[in-house]
Design brief:
The chain is an alpha/beta fold and about 280 residues long. The protein has three domains: about 110 residues, 3-Layer(aba) Sandwich (Cobalt-precorrin-4 Transmethylase, domain 1); about 100 residues, Methyltransferase, Cobalt-precorrin-4 Transmethylase, Domain 2 (2-Layer Sandwich), CATH 3.30.950; about 45 residues. The chain contains eleven helices and ten strands.
Length: about 280
């Protein structure tokens, strides 16, 4: 019987931000596949975990993938961890997860810290709909083309970025998106954590004056809707369609609010009126 691949989320900075379940999992598996064994060794030492480790990163992927899959197929349990946060997000862990699934290996997530969610919720920008777009391309022309493809994205956007490219990325954002609201979260949960909230232009001034260091997550406001707000008829037809698809009244209201980009309270009020009208009240 094949073993289990555990996707274990680890702290994004503060070592105390780890779940009891993650500690128990890391202690009990047969092997830990780590993106950076030096980083993971500090975590394991802190919690007195003595499980063997093997490096698994973009440079060892082709060599280590078969080795780890073979161990899983033989019945061994393996935990995969990234440098920080949840594996499989902008790191080589995704390939191992896909291969494990295709080989019939049980895959289980041990949830925990995520830089994406951490930055999103402290940004103050709309969080009911958002898109994670990973690292922008390094090459300036590719990066500008990438941003152009997102120019009409209405959802809040979350990006990762290197401190050495932060300023050029912000300048490309200003040129492409205009002076939208932005949040730059640096060194999240660490001693020198910094949360900058403002506009893209003010962020450029801030990080021109003081060079950024450490891990960086950018949260950018989506584009403003240029079309007129949906009418009551638009809301009614959307709700009716969702209800006919089998959703509950609460779920239909929530989904309609997201689809139409309007407050849930307004949609729910229309829902109550529709139900009352349907019941002949």
């Amino acid at each position: 019987m094949a073993g289990t691949l555990y996707i274990v989320a680890t702290p994004i900075g503060n070592l105390a931000d780890i779940t009891l379940r993650a500690i128990e999992t890391l202690k009990n598996v047969d092997l830990i596949a780590a993106e950076d064994t030096r980083v993971t060794r500090n975590l394991l030492s802190h919690y007195n975990i003595e499980t063997p480790m093997t490096p698994y990163h973009e440079h060892s992927l082709s060599r280590k993938l078969d080795e780890i899959l073979q161990k899983l197929r033989a019945g061994g349990d393996v935990a995969i961890v990234s440098d920080a946060g949840t594996p499989g997000i902008s790191d080589p862990g995704h390939e191992l997860i896909v291969q494990a699934i295709e080989n019939g290996v049980r895959v289980q997530s041990i949830p925990g810290p995520s830089a994406v969610i951490t930055a999103l919720v402290v940004s103050g920008l709309p969080s009911y709909r958002f898109a994670f777009d990973g690292f922008p391309p390094r090459k300036p022309s590719d990066r500008r083309a990438f941003f152009c493809s997102l120019k009409d994205e209405a959802r809040t956007m979350v990006f990762y970025e290197s401190p050495v490219r932060l300023l050029s990325t912000l300048k490309d954002m200003l040129a492409t998106f205009g002076d939208r609201r932005i949040c730059v979260l640096r060194e999240a949960t660490k001693l020198f954590e910094e949360t900058f909230r403002g506009t893209v232009e003010s962020a450029i001034r801030r990080f021109t004056e003081v060079s950024a260091k450490g891990e960086i997550t950018i949260v950018l406001e989506g584009c403003a809707a240029e079309s007129k707000p949906p009418s009551e008829g638009d809301i009614d037809s959307t709700l009716t369609s969702l209800l006919e698809s089998g959703l509950s009244e609460r779920d239909a209201a929530r989904e309609a609010a997201a689809l139409l980009s309007i407050p849930k309270k307004k949609v729910y009020q229309r829902m109550l009126e529709l139900v009352k009208k349907h019941d002949g009240g």
